[in-house]
Design goal:
Rhomboid-like fold; 2 domains; two-stranded antiparallel ribbon; globular
Length: 303
């Protein structure tokens, strides 16, 4: 039963969109951070915040925090709210564009917002404030859609009415501004980072929709990583089976024909797997047929 549960999680991850995969990664990374940070704080008094979260005061030597700050949410409520926003924002974005474009706007928005956060912190002297969470990148994606089709109808639960998506963007900015001015939970540094990411998504979409994706090349193709990972798993799987087949052949002569047929089947399966991986690389996982997804899933279960 435990293995079935794990296999279902793995299947939903593999069959999910880029946004769903990010949600899986962010949930796991957040829980890992909470656990290890709690242990270290209680045993040594050392916090992982400067190592993961972005701040101008700790940016040197922790320069990688410009890329790691989005993957961890500080508490469970922030994680829940961010993942809900990420899920629905990606669904809206993918009405017009593919998953790789979503990754570009999300990653580039986080980087741009992080850079503006650092500059603002240095200029104002508030260098000790930390930036974390995926909201910065989500704002970039949301306002990219607003730039592309500002009158797209959306609804906000639990309101029973629809309104243009640009109104949703205004609502989020007003709520953030109110939170910043009331000094309840959002600092001006973080607010500026979100506004910067929103502006990046809005204006970069103007260039992107004309075919000028001049920054997109610095963001790796998500499907490339998936193909490499799948290729490694398949090769390991094939290596294990070759060793198993060799042992079976040496242990009994009666199994010669069986092993030969078994090996032929494996060759055919390998060709089919390679063809599926090529299709993923060219068109994305979501464009696989149901049979192809099930075949790839069943092959990975045998690892």
């Amino acid at each position: 039963m435990y293995n079935d549960w794990i296999n279902k999680i793995k299947y939903y991850y593999r069959s999910g969109t880029e946004g769903v995969k990010i949600i899986y990664i962010f949930i796991i990374s957040s829980f890992v951070y909470w656990i290890f940070n709690f242990i270290l704080m209680n045993l040594t008094g050392f916090s992982l915040e400067p190592v993961i979260f972005l701040s101008a005061d700790k940016f040197i030597p922790y320069i990688w925090t410009l890329f790691t700050f989005p993957i961890v949410q500080k508490n469970l409520w922030d994680l829940f709210f961010a993942m809900i926003m990420l899920y629905f924002t990606e669904k809206i974005f993918r009405i017009y564009f593919n998953g790789n474009s979503f990754i570009k706007f999300f990653v580039l928005g986080n980087i741009f917002g992080g850079i503006i956060f650092l500059l603002y912190s240095l200029l104002t002297g508030y260098t000790y404030i930390f930036l974390n969470g995926a909201i910065v990148g989500i704002y970039s994606v949301l306002f990219a859609v607003i730039s592309y089709n500002p009158k797209m109808p959306v609804s906000l639960f639990p309101l029973p009415v629809q309104f243009p998506i640009y109104v949703l963007g205004i609502i989020f900015i007003v709520l953030d501004a109110f939170s910043t001015l009331s000094s309840s939970s959002l600092t001006m540094n973080v607010f500026i980072a979100r506004i910067a990411a929103a502006a990046f998504g809005f204006f970069y979409m103007k260039s992107f929709q004309t075919g000028n994706d001049f920054l997109g090349k610095i963001v790796p193709n998500f499907n490339t990583f998936y193909k490499i990972f799948s290729f490694i798993k398949v090769r390991i799987f094939s290596s294990k089976n070759r060793k198993k087949e060799k042992f079976q052949y040496q242990s009994t002569k009666s199994g010669v024909h069986t092993n030969k047929n078994f090996n032929e089947n494996k060759i055919e399966n390998q060709k089919k797997i390679d063809a599926i991986l090529d299709k993923i690389s060219k068109y994305g996982y979501e464009n696989l047929t149901k049979e192809e997804k099930e075949f790839l899933f069943n092959s990975s279960k045998k690892l």
